[in-house]
Amino acid sequence: MSKPKVAFICVHNSCRSQIAEALGKKFAGDVFESYSAGTETKPQINQDAVRLMKQRYGIDMEATQHSKLLSDLPPIDIVIKMGCNVVCPYLPSRYSEDWGLDDPTGKNDEEFMAIINQIEVNVKKLVETIKSTNLNL
Known about the structure:
Pfam families: LMWPc. Keywords: Arsenical resistance. This is Arsenate reductase ArsC. InterPro entries: Ptyr_pPase, Ptyr_pPase_sf. It is built from 4 helices and 4 strands. The mean pLDDT is 92. By secondary structure, the protein is α/β, with parallel strands linked by helices. 38% of the residues lie in helices and 15% in strands. The chain has a single domain (5-132), classed as Response regulator (Rossmann fold, 3-Layer(aba) Sandwich). A 4-stranded parallel β-sheet has the order 2-1-3-4, covered by helices on one side.
C-alpha cells in the first residue's frame, strides 16, 4: 500500500506551508509523503520560520526544502490549504482541507510559535484522519 501524497499549499510557499511540510515529514513520514508549494515563490523560506523550527525541533528547513510552484509537485492525493485570506490556489486531489491559519510573517516569536504549534496539532490530526478513513491509498 503506497502512502498518500499530501501538499500543503498557500500563495508564496515561504512560511506556513514550509513549516507544515517539515512537520509532516517529522511526525507523519510513516503515514504520508509531505510536499509544499504555492502559486508564487520567494527567494528563501521565511527566516523567522527557519530560526524557530531549528530552535524547537532541530529541523533545518533550508537544508532540505525550498519555495516551489504547484506545477513542481507530483500528482497529489490530499491538499491542505493553509488559509490564504485571498483565493487559495487550486490543486486537484481526492481530499482537501483548509486550515485557515493566519500568516505569522512579521509577528513576534510568541505569535509565530502559536501558529507552529497549531500546525503540529493539525498534522497529527491529519495522521489520525488518514488512518481512520479511506484516505489511505
